[in-house]
Amino acid sequence: MAIRDFKQSSTLLMKFNFGVDSRGNDIIKVLNLRKVKPTADHQAVYDTALSISTLVDGNLTEVLRQEVLELVNE
Fold first, then answer.
1. Which of 28, 36, 63, 66 could bridge to 49 as Cys pair (CB 3.0-4.6 Å)?
2. Cβ distance 13 to 64 under 8 Å?
């Protein structure tokens, strides 16, 4: 039997560096955008993250995409 996967949801996570604190540790904040179309192309999601990053004071350090898949045994 084969296992098939069905994309249920997708989330865009963007990590920003806002400098360092008084102890010298990086100040990292994560922006989560839910309800990304599961069928959206990775390049389109990445380009969206770059566009959004221009509106944020911190430096974009990482772009992540988190997906939830339903696994079905057929």
1. 63
2. yes
